[in-house]
UniProtKB/TrEMBL annotation:
This is exo-alpha-sialidase. InterPro entries: Sialidase, Sialidase_fam, Sialidase_sf. Signal peptide: none annotated. It catalyses: Hydrolysis of alpha-(2->3)-, alpha-(2->6)-, alpha-(2->8)- glycosidic linkages of terminal sialic acid residues in oligosaccharides, glycoproteins, glycolipids, colominic acid and synthetic substrates. Pfam families: BNR_2. The keyword Repeat applies. CDD domains: Sialidase_non-viral (cd15482). The keyword Lipid metabolism applies. Belongs to the glycosyl hydrolase 33 family.
Amino acid sequence: MGNTSSKSGSGEEPVKTILFEQEQQSGITYRIPALIYLQHSHTFLAFAEKRSSPSDQDAKILVMRSGTLKDDGSVQWSSSQELSTARQPGCRTMNPCPVYEKNSRTLFLFFICVLETITEKYQVITGRNQARLCCVSSSDDGQTWTSAKDLTESVIGETIHEWATFAVGPGHGVQMENGRLIIPAYAYYVPYRCCSFPIPCTVYPHALAIYSDNGGETWHMGEKLQKYSCECEMAEIIDHEGRSYLYCNARNNGGIRCEALSEDSGKYFDKPHMASELVEPPSGCQGSVIGFPAPEFFPNDDAESKACGTSLLSPDTQTWLLFMHPTNKCSRRDMGVYLNRSPLHSSGWDRPRIINSGPSGYSDLAYNSDKDQFSCVIECGTHSENEQIAFISFTLNDVMQTGNKREKKMRNLKI
């Protein structure tokens, strides 16, 4: 069964295909989606955590579905499979973060493994990390996977003693134009201790990049952002002079998102900026960001653009950004897509286009340059965002449509 985007100008929310759905009797729930598009094989890979309940402490194993993009724009999805090698004994597997190395055609899937009985809150209170940085890889587009590697010692080393806990992503990583592979991550840094325990109210998360310059053979860790910044994703921005910047967009508990730029491909980020246009619900929520080539056209300053809230800033980069996140300030509802045509400016975000009305949670974006189309996986549902993980495709025109037409109720496809 396939999936196509809504027609430009139709005013509809895009078609939604259900990939994972909560099982009412058993309580099995699928959360924390990640998505990657492999252009050479026209394949989507959608990942999620399989849990025995919606709670973080009940995460069990990662699952995956593969989708083949057809000539007519539909996507043929495989059945769900558990990634049996992506685990460590006695641990729960969490936070899928895929990245593709184009030169060797190797797909890396990063994740963390945490002792089954240990919660994140317990680690933050005690200051004793129980998470491990792990990775599997595939050379056949996700058909088979290697055994899990524990990279904690080689990548983090003694710095782990300064952290209460950490995680990657969740969501996709990036390969930059210089070949560097980027895995977004965050760590709860412990600045002060008393009798080996963290001093209360001093332990906060900080986003950072994990990177490789040799095709994924070895990995290193960049410096942390100097501001509260939790779950994050990153995107490369190329300006009109060909200079590269790594952009970080991170969850924050202050009601708006945290942004930062790196001019050295993720080793160090400049002073973070709070993006007032990108609102957070109470306690925040994960969001997804992706860069894509700026189109040759640019919307005129007309009534339609104003009605859509289109930014009037002149484009200053070869790259535009899309950001996806719940738009409601009070709860995780109404998934929106924000466009930024001037991503090096601190206020370049347009007003969001709602692509899923109602409960909406975590998400991940992918870009298909062949069809100039975007796809995403989102947590959503009728009563709770924990009910389903859905796949949606849409175009830039869909994002830039005005909200004048009444949006029709989204069609649901379960496959």
